[in-house]
Amino acid sequence: MSFNTLGLSAELLRAVAEQGYSEPTPIQRQAIPLVLEGRDMMAGAQTGTGKTAGFTLPLLQRLNRTAREGGKRKIRVLVLVPTRELAAQVEQSVVDYGRHLPLKSAVVFGGVNINTQIKRLKSGVDILVATPGRLLDHLSQKTVDLSAVESLVLDEADRMLDMGFIRDIRRILAVLPAKRQNLLFSATFSGEIKRLADSLLDNPARIEVERNNIAAECVEHVVHLVDQRRKRELLSHMIGANNWQQVLVFTRTKHGANRLAEQLGKDGIKTAAIHGNKTQGARTRALADFKRGAVRALVATDIAARGLDIHQLPHVVNYDLPHVPEDYVHRIGRTGRAGHPGNAISLVCADDISLLHGIERLLKRDLPRDIIEGYETSFTVPSHRAKRNTRPQTRSYSPRLGVRGR
Q: Phi-psi bin for 179: left (phi > 0), alpha (psi -120 to 50), beta?
């Protein structure tokens, strides 16, 4: 199937081709016709499946079909996302796909000067991409008008709920027109997500391109057992021994991210850190340096797990396992995107065993365990089902994943 079969206009097909795409992904094949029909939709899709284009393309077409002539532009499509990085990414997609259409977009999020955003909104926009907190700031200052919204998108809805945005979302919903199209995208479907969907969606189409909570098929997982005090040493060793040029590393805390970035720098590995305490400018610069290869390792907290879009990122390392098992899926969703192979490496110490078992219960399978030669441990980690002995083998390196059997 090609994009030509989905009912998109020539202008949009031209933009898609200019972005280098020829065939729609499964989520795009299913979502685009439904959004074009004006249906409400609840979609389950992991990151990297092309879901942004799945709603951006048809919404651009719907707006262009009914483009308003004369007068000030009003916001007719509102896209809510959880993080600054994801907001910037989604708005860039709107710009890229809408480049041949007479439509305007804007993005608003915290951490930057609100006055620049106010000026942009005053000029009139058709599509607004926003994080909930900053959008409420604009609503309180009466610098944004949502009275003409025709379509609402909740992107990464599960992450927004995890981050405590449910009250903010409901406050925003209260000022929107009652009659509108609603699209909800979520990687997982918790009870809270289902309750939100029930209150928001009207006879929705439901599509799901991957099973709930299952990590991308093309990601290869490995757990390296290591004593806590030697985690940083092992990470530096893996990066150097395998000549990894691009690795995204997740820590639990902002302080931990800063400390690890400093330590890796002392080991001779060019490293940057991004987290919620960094200014938006610093986060943007760090990500840009990482993408262009000026930085080999990017250390991040979970604030970055959803919004980073890095083409063909080869390695994601869980330096600390997340407390919430679903966050493992979100983290490793940064690699193995759009069918490209990826590696998810977790450094697990004795204190992490219960967290590892929670992840394995979510994935419904054991993750392979390995101990790197020279980093032998005094502990082992049994199967989360405790049905068989999964004593790890000692391994040495291969350039691809970092381990091979001896």
A: beta
